[in-house]
Design a protein that fits this description.
About 45% of the residues lie in helices and about 15% in strands. It is of the alpha+beta class. Strands 3, 5, 6, 7 and 8 form a five-stranded antiparallel beta sheet that branches. Helix 2 packs antiparallel against helix 3 and helix 8 packs across helix 14. The chain starts with 18 loop residues before the first strand and ends with a strand.
Length: about 450
């Protein structure tokens, strides 16, 4: 299993999201997350004009740490109690008090962020009127992206990233809080992560069109929705039939269907590809294997992109920038459990041209590009109630589609875990496979050079 993710951007290491059990579900032992907004980072220019914000932020951070401690202590005692447990009354009372305190903290955090946004905007406008030799640092949490981008260009960030991303603990905490919040499906935090990355991509030399193309591919991969290239409408009747067939719901299984080694005679659209690794995956690096197999670039060359990509990535956590191998190390061994989708797309575009593939277009994509479709499948497991749910993800390359004499349709799937199958490839019935797709979409990588 590879790339354990709770959402499209991965399950973050480091600070835990603040979890508070609601009274309505206390007896069942479940907990849900109250969405606590990350505290904005105060730029040096804003500090000069609004020193009181520093004191407010420090107080809020101390309060946040205390709430984390109280919540963890509460959950350790109260999460598993039964309806007749004598601790029920005290746990319920404590929960009500804790929830009220958290809600007050959320309101105070929102007021602080609003005040900071106003102060930061004023500081940016003032800095534009000053000498360009000024070396103050823009607050990347500010929502005025146009001004933020101008300031970043003026200070010539380059891909080396602002020094504060390497050394400033407050900035690091802000990035961690963004990931914690985004992992709980907070769209605002995810958009802030996107805006930081977009600024860095522009400063690195990408045009606005190239930046837009990057995020368009990212969105198609992670949602399954996007534009189908016009030329794909000229594909064969067989490709259109395969993609247009209605999906049938099948019982959810722990794997993505029965694996078949051979099919016999079939009508097929397929690519001529070879497994590019030197053996099965030995780390949480299935994403790198899938990119390697999809682009037909040796695995060692794809992995070589990992370190330079992450060492200067503004949205990466500090420990990952210092040691990129943590990004392909399991969580139980201190790593992140695998690359997130932003990192994946950044590496893929260094290998070749990335062409996004919307849901229900795999056959057309393979026939049109003569390349495999890289996609993510959900790993299914049992939760504490013995119910099946998605507990992680795995990345594979779909190398072809095949229809047998009896009308069954299969995908051929190259998988870095299938060492006992020819060319690390197995055939999976189409409905089984599609019911396990994590996002629905995928992408093709057309390599920059032939190998």
């Amino acid at each position: 299993m590879c790339t354990i993710r709770k959402s499209i951007i991965g399950s973050p290491a480091g600070l835990l999201a603040l979890m508070v059990a609601l009274a309505a579900v206390l007896l069942s032992g479940h907990a849900v997350a109250l969405d606590i907004p990350p505290l904005g980072v105060i730029s040096s220019a804003t500090v000069d004009t609004n020193p009181a914000l520093v004191t407010q932020r420090s107080a809020l951070q101390a309060e946040r740490n205390e709430l984390r401690t109280r919540t963890q202590a509460h959950n350790s005692v109260c999460n598993e109690i039964s309806e007749r447990d004598p601790k029920l009354a005290s746990c319920t009372q404590e929960l009500q008090t804790l929830t009220q305190d958290v809600e007050r903290h959320i309101d105070a955090s929102k007021r602080f962020n609003a005040a900071l946004a106003t102060a930061s905007a004023m500081a940016i406008r003032a800095s534009h009127a000053s000498d360009f030799s000024d070396t103050s640092v823009v607050d990347l949490s500010d929502t005025n992206l146009a001004d933020a981008n101008k300031a970043l260009m003026r200070h010539q960030w380059s891909m080396s990233i602002d020094q504060r991303y390497k050394d400033d603990p407050a900035v690091q905490l802000y990035i961690r809080d963004l990931w914690d919040s985004a992992a709980n499906n907070n769209a605002e935090s995810l958009n802030k992560i996107k805006s930081i990355l977009a600024d860095q991509l522009r400063v690195s030399g990408l045009t606005q069109q190239q930046v837009d193309d990057f995020f368009r591919s990212f969105d198609t991969f992670t949602t399954g929705k996007g534009r189908v290239p016009k030329e794909w409408n000229k594909t064969s009747k067989f490709a259109r039939e395969i993609d247009g067939a209605a999906q049938k719901n099948v019982p959810q299984n722990l794997s993505y269907g029965k694996l078949v080694k051979t099919l016999g005679k079939t009508e097929s659209i397929k690519t001529k590809v070879t497994y590019m690794g030197t053996g099965p995956q030995t780390a949480e690096d299935c994403v790198l294997h899938a990119i390697s197999d999809g682009a037909q670039i040796p695995f060692v060359q794809v992995k070589a992109k990992l370190s330079p990509t992450l060492k200067n990535l503004a949205i990466a956590r500090s420990e990952v920038r210092k040691n990129p191998e943590l990004d392909i190390t399991s969580q139980k061994n201190g790593g992140t459990g695998g690359l997130n989708s932003f990192e994946e797309m950044l590496i893929a575009r260094q290998v070749g041209e990335v062409i996004a593939v919307p849901d229900k277009n795999f056959a057309k994509a393979i026939e049109s590009t003569h390349s495999p479709v890289i996609t993510a499948v959900g790993i299914i497991g049992y939760d504490q109630n013995n119910e099946l749910k998605v507990v992680g993800a795995h990345e594979v390359a779909v190398t072809g589609v095949h229809r047998t004499k009896d009308g069954k349709v299969y995908y051929s799937v190259m998988d870095s875990n299938l060492k006992n199958y020819p060319n690390y490839t197995a055939y999976v019935e189409k409905n089984d496979f599609e019911n396990h797709l994590l996002f629905g979409g995928g992408y093709v990588v057309v390599p920059n050079e032939k190998h």
